[in-house]
TrEMBL record, chain A:
PANTHER family: SPORE GERMINATION PROTEIN (PTHR22550), STAGE V SPORULATION PROTEIN AF (PTHR22550:SF9). The keyword Transmembrane helix applies. It is a multi-pass membrane protein. Pfam families: GerA. This is Stage V sporulation protein AF. The gene is spoVAF. It comes from Thalassobacillus devorans. Keywords: Membrane, Transmembrane, Transmembrane helix. It is found in: Cell membrane; Membrane. Coiled coil: none annotated.
From TrEMBL, chain B:
InterPro entries: YqhR. The chain crosses the membrane at residues 21-42, 62-89, 101-120, 132-151. The keyword Mitochondrion does not apply. Coiled coil: none annotated. It holds the Pfam family YqhR. It comes from Thalassobacillus devorans. Keywords: Membrane, Transmembrane, Transmembrane helix. This is Membrane protein YqhR.
Length: 488, 169
């Protein structure tokens, strides 16, 4: 796949046929179609990919040309004549064979005319795909129900529907030497930090790979250097309203063709704890939901290690809380019980992802009733273990970002082990390392734990309290907006 | 592009890094002393903010109540403003999180070792349990990182915006 050398469109159709056969394998691949028909004494070769073109349009185009041929007009300007009779708003004339092939495989129809060193490319694409649906992971009680799809053109349209601003930019870059995936970078020209736009563009352009089959994820792994860090360094959204509100704030969005997930950059930890639902409720209710969620997330990381600590050293418990801790002895150490139960829940979660719905009820039943209850009856588990593991698990599910919830789960297990081995010291040191590790992480030059660490009062207030929209007058400083005020 | 950005930042300057730093000091003192009070409540440490500021000077009954702890937290928050001021004056040009961590460790050393004789309610360093020492060091390290990183980040963010863009990852 050497893209450097350009081949000029040949004037002899025979050469073109040979070239196309070599490059695309017209004879071998059944999905690449080819049709030859005469026009004004010349021959015309049309190539298309059967699954990616809209048959109606192709028929329409051919009909128009054939009717023109039937009129037998007296003109010498055959090429110009054909151009005028291609009834479509997107017709392009190209001179390079390589471009013809790329466009052909993107779903456009290519027409070669005998004796001409130019070719027509007509956008008759019609990609297989679904219509916008509400994304499963970001459901709201009220509000718009549309979601991004796998089609990048539709996705830009969904964004444009919400931002009818001439300053919204959708820049497209092709990436992947074989897949030639379209990647679109969206931002508001007069708001987004030009440095960030430049950085993102460079990172995307520097992607060198044959194909981006895992689309958004592949791009993410190229632009943020994740290393051993389990925390999600970018936020995804499938909701156009969430995407639009981030664009207004000055974020840069990366859309990748074939995926409904948009990448929002730059992202901080606290972007992962927000949910569109909060903004659909009154500020007080939104704040309430958010606090409850914070408690859940905090519990998902620290509750189990903390409880384990209290079980290991009951002397730590203050008088009013002395009832905490198992009453009965079990032959298995509590930490092992917790780990087994936690891994059991993980089994369940992993299994639930790929279990078909009719079977998942049965699976839930087996997991909940049989394993949970019987493990206690047999004497494997202390009932309290089940309680705390369950609370921590629900906390995990209450985390709006799936990626973050899994990262938190890993942190919890590490913290559990540290606590089990080193007691109070393990717990406090683990806590410190957790906070410091989050604080020193950077995602596209943005401190990850902002606005808590480094601290920013105004932004932190917006995290703790869901302000009403008229009160949120300025854009968050973390994106370094060129234009700070949201209300002109 | 640079021009608009610089103008932008000059507009923001009047909000003043100094004030932000002092506010950070206050909030940092409050957040981490609350954690300190909690770890005292759960017996991770033998000392709480109140042991330093309240119980060392008044030994009446109320000092070990909830009120005592609240006053202790408020006291630490106020004193912490001075801590932030010191960092702002001496170390604001540093980069990253490590200077803050070291600063926190140094503050711990000053309070727990050098100033220890002042606080009657705080046992001498050799008499403390290892849990107390580790927990308090952790809290001071977090506190130091909090104010240190916040102040230096704010300083670099407002003074060298171009640097922030070009510094790479």
């Amino acid at each position: 796949m050497d893209n450097q050398q350009e081949t000029h469109v040949m004037s002899r159709l025979h050469d073109i046929e040979k070239f196309m056969d070599e490059q695309v394998g017209i004879e071998e691949s059944f999905d690449v179609g080819f049709r030859q028909f005469p026009i004004l004494g010349r021959k015309l070769n049309m190539y298309y990919v059967t699954g990616l073109v809209d048959t109606d349009y192709v028929i329409e185009l051919m009909k128009e040309l054939m009717e023109w041929e039937a009129e037998q007009p007296r003109t010498r300007k055959v090429f110009e004549g054909i151009y005028e009779h291609l009834v479509h708003q997107q017709v392009e004339i190209v001179e390079s064979m390589e471009e013809c092939i790329t466009q052909l495989l993107s779903g456009l129809a290519v027409i070669f005319v005998e004796g001409e060193k130019k070719a027509f490319i007509i956008d008759v694409r019609s990609y297989p795909g679904r219509s916008p649906e509400e994304p499963d992971t970001e459901k709201v009680v009220r509000g718009s129900r549309d979601g991004y799809t796998e089609n990048i053109i539709e996705n830009t349209a969904l964004t444009r529907r919400r931002i009818r601003d001439g300053r919204l930019r959708h820049e497209i870059i092709k990436s992947g030497t074989r897949s030639k995936t379209d990647i679109c970078i969206s931002y508001l020209k007069d708001v987004a930090d030009p440095g960030l736009v430049k950085l993102v563009k460079e990172e995307v352009k520097n992607i060198e790979i044959d194909g981006l089959s895992m689309a958004d994820k592949t791009v993410e792994e190229y632009i943020v250097k994740q290393g051993f860090n389990p925390f999600p360094l970018v936020r995804y959204t499938e909701r156009p309203d969430v995407a639009a509100s981030h664009l207004f704030e000055g974020h840069v969005l990366i859309m990748v063709d074939t995926t409904p997930s948009m990448i929002i950059t730059p992202t901080t930890f606290f972007h992962h704890v927000q949910h569109a639902e909060e903004y659909r409720q009154s500020p007080v209710v939104g704040t309430f939901i958010r606090w409850i969620r914070f408690i859940g997330m905090f519990a998902s990381v620290f509750l189990l290690p903390f409880w384990l600590l209290m079980v290991m050293e009951p002397s730590l418990l203050p008088e009013p809380l002395a009832f905490i801790g198992p009453n009965e002895e079990s032959s298995i150490p509590v930490v092992i019980q917790i780990l087994i139960a936690d891994i059991g829940i993980e089994f369940l979660r992993i299994a639930a992802i790929h279990t078909p719905t009719p079977l998942s009820t049965a699976m839930g039943l087996i997991a909940a009733v049989l394993i949970g209850q019987i493990a206690i009856d047999v004497g494997m588990f202390v009932p309290e273990v089940i309680l705390y593991v369950a609370v921590a698990a629900i906390g995990t599910f209450a985390t709006p970002s799936y990626e973050l919830s899994v990262a938190n789960k890993i942190s919890r297990i590490l913290l559990l082990l540290l606590t089990a081995f080193f007691g109070v010291k393990g717990f406090t040191i683990g806590f410190t390392i957790y906070i410091l590790a989050l604080a020193r992480t950077k995602s596209l030059n943005t401190p990850y734990f902002w606005p808590f660490l480094p601290f920013n009062m105004k932004a932190m207030m917006q995290i703790l309290f869901r302000l009403s929209v008229p009160l949120a007058k300025v854009r968050p400083s973390i994106v370094h907006p060129q234009n700070n005020h949201r209300q002109p | 592009m640079d021009k608009t950005q610089l103008e932008q930042n000059q507009q923001e300057k009047p909000i003043s890094i100094l004030n932000k730093s002092l506010l950070t000091g206050f909030v940092g003192g409050m957040v981490w002393s609350i954690f300190g009070a909690l770890s005292y409540y759960f017996n991770f440490t033998e000392v709480s903010p109140a042991s330093f500021l309240i119980r060392s000077f008044w030994q009446t009954g109320w000092t070990s109540s909830f009120l005592g702890e609240v006053l202790g937290v408020i006291g630490v928050s106020l004193i912490s403003i001075a801590g932030a001021l010191v960092y702002y004056l001496a170390l604001k040009k540093t980069n990253g999180i490590m200077p803050g961590v070291l600063y926190g460790g140094a503050v711990w050393g000053i309070i727990f070792y050098l100033l220890n004789p002042i606080f009657a309610a705080v046992p001498a360093l050799p008499d403390m349990t290892s849990d107390t020492i580790i927990t308090t060091i952790c809290l001071f390290v977090l506190y130091g990182a909090f104010i240190g990183y916040s102040i230096s980040y704010e300083y670099h963010d407002l003074n060298q915006p171009a640097d922030g863009d070009a510094s790479g990852k």
